[in-house]
Amino acid sequence: MHNNLVNKYNVPGPRYTSYPTVPYWDDTKFLGDDYQKNVVQSFSESNASEGISLYIHLPFCESLCTFCGCNKRITKNHKVETPYLESVLQEWRLYLAMFSERPIIKELHLGGGTPTFFSAENLKRLIDGIFEGAIMAKDPSFSFEGHPNNTKGNHLQTLYNCGFTRVSYGVQDYNPTVQVAINRLQPFVNVKNVTNTAREIGYTSVGHDIIFGLPFQTKEHVMFSIEKTKELMPDRIAFYSYAHVPWIKGNGQRGFKEADLPTAAEKREMYEIGKKMLEDAGYIEIGMDHFALKSDSLYKAVKDKKLHRNFMGYTESKTQLMIGLGVSAIGDSWYSFGQNAKNVEEYQSLVAQNKLPIYRGHLLTDEDLVIRKHILNLMCRLETSWSDKSLWFNEIPDTLIKLKEMESDGLVLLNSNSIKITEKGRPFVRNVCMAFDVLLQRTKPGTQLFSMTI
After folding, report:
1. pLDDT tens by residue, the chain, 454 residues
2. CA 398 vs CA 37, 445, 452: distances in Å
3. Number of other residues whose CB lies within 10 A of the CB of residue 375
4. How many Å from the N-terminal Cα to the C-terminal Cα in the chain?
């Protein structure tokens, strides 16, 4: 890829796990009562036909990885496990009280933090507690994030017995220099052991996360990490750019200097090299930053045009209602978003008072809902159309003008009522979405809110 394209389009931009993006939520019009009404509305519209999704945030980690942008609490005190899980289950009971029937859970994801910080017994207690008031869908998609250093065989077996069939491991990079810089020391043998154990138990999808653009990382490092990854052939791979946002995440991302990071051109070369190596190994690029083998359910979702994107990233199917449980978790009722309190103690205090711990959110306008569909189409299918009048919005002419230069650069194909992102344009999908993001266009941020797109 030419460096002039990288330089031209390397600007701060959202990753579009939602629209509107969190910095553009309108808190002034958000009321918790409205969010609850939307949750009930979506539940009544969709539970019987498609079920619901649950995201459960488990924030504890024993050590701080300096690349991490997640909400986490660093502690070696495992006495925090039981009271935290009791709070999560109490929060779940507050949602159950809103519903007229038992929810059918189609999708469940444990994220963090480090979910495997918790003992296998406590994780079983959590899942059993969730299903005391719920029904498991016939073909569920249950997954969790595992740390290669502390995921044990009993974690994997216990969660498999609870219906989990997918696990993803944070590999990041196999090179010692990079691992020291990000405080994530984990040898290849640990990843190999947990990958093989998951497969032996019966997990149908094992994923690895690999990051490019980390401090002190070179293209040779990326090549080495992918060569090692090919020895294990995980079913899917998240191969994504390091999001450097220290102004949001505080000291966690100040463990190295800006000068230690690769340049935008170097990052793009890492991506191009890594992408070719993965494709040569049989992986298919899915949406943005994701690759999967043809045998994996994520690839099948693409072929069946069922790929969806939400706060959990790319998922295999859409559910209209996603409930977020735990500190800082975000729920999506389709008509509104609601985020839980970000502080563990505040979260637990609110739940103890039988209050939903939501502290901010956004009620989607009619315009938001239309643009959300376009951005989902672009992120999941690399194309969208407004030939249906219900998908027209007033600023489409301005959007097309903004996209003309991308068309001349060969990144998109335009006509009067549709757009398609070309193969050359795939690395710039965030930039294309930004042209549809009317809230971003109307109010340019005065300070940097997002990571760079390249």
Report:
1. 456 777 788 787 888 988 999 899 998 888 778 999 999 999 999 999 999 999 999 998 878 887 777 788 888 899 999 999 999 999 999 999 999 999 999 999 999 889 999 999 999 999 999 999 999 999 999 999 999 999 999 999 999 999 999 999 999 999 999 999 888 899 999 999 999 999 999 999 999 999 999 999 999 999 999 999 999 999 999 998 887 555 344 444 445 777 889 988 898 899 899 999 999 999 999 988 899 999 999 999 999 988 998 888 898 888 999 999 999 999 999 999 999 999 999 999 999 999 999 999 999 999 999 999 999 999 999 999 999 999 999 999 999 999 999 999 999 999 989 999 999 898 889 999 999 999 998 887 655 556 565 6
2. 35, 19, 23
3. 23
4. 12
Q: Which amino acid is at 252?
A: G
Q: Which pairs from 431-434 meet CB under 8 Å and 24+ separation? A: 431/9, 431/11, 431/13, 431/406, 432/378, 432/403, 432/406, 433/13, 433/14, 433/16, 433/375, 433/378, 433/379, 434/13, 434/14
Closest of 267, 186, 283, 250 to residue 3, by C-alpha: 267
Cis peptide before 338 (omega within 30 of 0): no
Domains of the chain: residue spans and CATH:
1-20+365-454 (1.10.10.920), 25-325 (3.80.30.20)
Instruction: Give the span between the Cα atoms of 438 and 32, in whole angstroms.
Output: 25
- Six token digits for residue 374: 């376009």
| Residue 61: strand pairing partners | 74
Rounded to two decimals, the pTM is 0.91
